Amino acid sequence: TNVFIEHCYIHNFGKAGVYCAATTTPSGTIYHATVRNCVIANIGLLYETGKYGWGNGVAMANGGMRTTGSYGRGKMLVENCIIHRCSMHTVDFEPGQNSIIRNNYLATPARQYYDAGGAKDPWNVGLQQYPYGGVVSSGTAVASTGNTITNNLVETGMGWGIVLADATTTGNSVTNNINDDVKSGCITYSRSAPTGQDSGNSCSTFSSYSLNGDGFSP
């Protein structure tokens, strides 16, 4: 908690550039970590196979992706960063709470990534509960809520720009972002089971979110 990562070049990792595994969520103005004025690049690249694995520039999660016991939520401040060439997410909330992602350049490449389910399209910024898809071994799935995504340039070569997944993902503010070169700039995605990122997507009204001022480029 209260870690500062500033003026760093973080690159060429197979899974994540910065990963926050939270068992508790700090209150007030304290964050698990502040990532500021950094470049995070080449995450999820599997050079030895010529394919791209699941890679996240900045990832927030509960305590090590736990499915039993109590869960925390990642709480991070990410600002003034360049996060690019990340195969799945530039920023991933699984789950996040009261995080702020602002004034960043966020870019995913124009190619699919590969996991056990085969080839899939990236979600540039993804907010979802964990465990996702309503699959819970013990306890209750924990939602991504209270997060702010604002004043970012979101450039998505393939896939979706900003995805708010699962019915529990509510109370998040997504404002004044420019979403460039995407299938859909900002969407909700409802799923009853984890069937994959390439199915079940739809655009809808955003009664649970603040989306005023978002710009969409072809």
Which key phrases capture this entry?
globular, 7-stranded mixed sheet, 218 residues, 7-stranded parallel sheet, single chain
Q: Note the main sheet.
A: 7 strands, parallel
Radius of gyration: 16 Å
Number of helices: 0
Order of helices and strands: EEEEEEEEEEEEEEEEEEEEEEEE
User: How helix-rich are the residues, as a percent range?
Assistant: under 10%
Structural class: mainly beta
> Averaged pLDDT, please?
74
Distance between the termini: 40 Å
What general outline do the C-alpha atoms trace?
globular
Question: How much of the residues is beta strand, in percent?
Answer: over 45%
Unreliable residue stretches: 190-218
Q: How many strand elements? A: 24
What can you see in these coordinates?
This protein has 218 residues and is mainly beta. Helices cover 0% and strands 45% of the residues. A 7-stranded parallel β-sheet has the order 2-5-10-13-18-21-24, with no helix packed on it. Strand 6 (45-46) and strand 7 (51-52) form a beta hairpin. The radius of gyration is 16 Å and the shape is globular. It starts with a strand and ends with a strand.
